[in-house]
Please model this.
Amino acid sequence: MRELVYTGFMSLDGVLDSPGGPGEGHRSGGWVAGVEFLPEAFALKGEELAETTALMFGRRSYEAFAPYWRESDDHAAYKELPKYVVSSTLSEDALVDGWGPTTILRSEKEVAALKHEAQRGDGGAIFVHGSAELARRLADADLIDRYHLLVFPVLLGAGKSLFSRADRDKQVLRLRASGAYPNGVVKVVYDVAR
Model:
């Protein structure tokens, strides 16, 4: 079965953010850029690139990332990879041209079917970037297999939360890798125990 891996930047109190600015919907948006940049703290992103065979986004993250990443030299290796957008509202004509093959999935059931493609010979890790709402839905549907998190030394109190507050069965995580860096960023990679 294909692994579905969530990767993101997270505050200590569980708020997600892109490296962008206040467009995140709360007054502290863009907080990632306020932490000293150390290449070793972001080495996880290069490791992920080597493992990524496909990308997955929610609609809003796709609309934000696709035009930028399509033109970005830092993300050139992603250009021709298959992309999946999980959305009940995105239309085919809204897909970004020139950024490789993109498929719209309409439900968590279609995501589950995609994960099972490995049984037919297709495979490799699918990485979910950004997409807080999608991450919560996929986790609640028990579809995420691994978390790659860079945890930043900030408390925000408001913003998009990675984890659902729904009353659900306990989910156990097993630590695969970790690291701490002088700028206060902590890397944690967890496998979801099943």
In short: The chain has a mean pLDDT of 89.
